[in-house]
Write a structure and sequence with these properties.
It is built from 1 helix and no strands. The protein is mainly α and 108 residues long. It is rod-shaped. The termini are far apart.
Length: 108
């Protein structure tokens, strides 16, 4: 009788342990599912952020284009301005030279 009671006690302990292991396994499976859903959600968020980053980088490049064009135009205008100043000085000297020649011819 003592042996049967002892065996029953061992069986009860094993059943409790089995139940506990089963509950822990179910909880672990549930936790794993929740973690998998979080990973899936975070991957979607990451994709959206990457798409937004690509759009922003594209926008920055588009914004830089007019600035580059403007800087080139300013550079060309500076060169043209220098050329105009040189031409103006040449024309001024030419006018002076022509005036002197004309005065010389008039005096002759």
């Amino acid at each position: 009788l003592g042996e049967i009671a002892n065996t029953d006690e061992v069986i009860n302990k094993l059943n409790k342990e089995k139940k506990h292991i089963s509950e822990n396994g179910a909880k672990a499976a549930e936790d794993l599912q929740v973690a998998a859903e979080k990973v899936e959600h975070l991957n979607k968020v990451k994709q959206k952020l990457e798409a937004t980053l690509d759009e922003l980088e594209g926008g920055v490049e588009k914004e830089k284009e007019p600035e580059v064009t403007w800087k080139r135009s300013v550079g060309k205008l500076k060169v043209n301005s220098k050329l105009c100043k040189k031409l103006w000085l040449i024309l001024k000297d030419l006018k002076k030279s022509l005036r002197l020649r004309l005065e010389e011819k008039i005096m002759i």
